[in-house]
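Continuing from the previous page...

OK, I double-checked the sequence for Ion channel against my notes and this is the correct one:
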Amino acid sequence: MRTNDGNTVSSLRRLRWLAILVRHPSAALLLVQLAGLLLYPFIEQTRAARVLFGAFGVVVLMLAISMVQRTRGRGWISAAIAVPAVVCNAMGLMLDMPALKPWWAALEALFYFYAAGCLIAYMLADRRATTDEMFAAGATFTLLAWAFTYLFVLCQVLQPGCFAAAVNPAGPRSWTELLFLSFALMSSTGIGDVIPVTVHARALASLEMFVGVMYIALVVSRLIGLSVSREEEREPRR
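Thanks. Re-ran it with the corrected sequence; updated C-alpha cells here:
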C-alpha cells in the first residue's frame, strides 16, 4: 500500500509540473533556453556534438514556434523562417558545406528576432501582468541574446577577425564565447574578455546594448509596475 501511495504521489507531482508547463508555455521555453546555455559548452567541439547542437536547436525552434502561435504572431511566418534555417544547418554539418553557414546564421537571427517581437507584443497586449508574462519576460531576454549571437556569428563569417579575446586573440570565437558576449551586452554588465574590434562588429554590439537597455526600461519595468498595481488593488482598504 505504501509503495502504491508513493507511486501515486509521484505521478500526481509529475502531472502537476506538466500542467504548470502547459499553462505557462513561456516557462518551458525559458527552461529549455537556460538548459541550452549550460549544455552548449559540452557539445560544440566535435562534428557529432555539433549535430546534437543542431538537434537541440530544433527543439528550441519548435518551442518558439508554439509560443508564436499562442501569441499574435503568425505561425506560418515563423515556420517559413525556421525550416530553411534547420535545413541549412543540417546540410552544412552533414555535407561539410561552410558556404551555408552565413545563410543559417542570418535565418536563425531573423527567426529569434521575430519570436522575441511576438512575445513582446504578447506582454504589451493588456494592462495586467500574468505569471506566464513574467516567464515570457525572461524567455524574450534569452531569445534576443540568441538572436544577436547569430548576428555575431554572421559577422564573424563575413569578416574574420572581427572579435578578439584574451585567449587566442587571433582565432575565431566559438559559439559559447559569442553567446557570453551577447549576454554581457544585453544585460549591460560590461564583463568578459571578448570584444568587437571592427567597426561593423562594434555597430552590432552598440545596437545590442541599446536593445537591452530599452527592453528593460520599457517592457520589464512595465510588467513590474503592473504587478505592483495588482498587488495594491488586492490589499483591503483601511
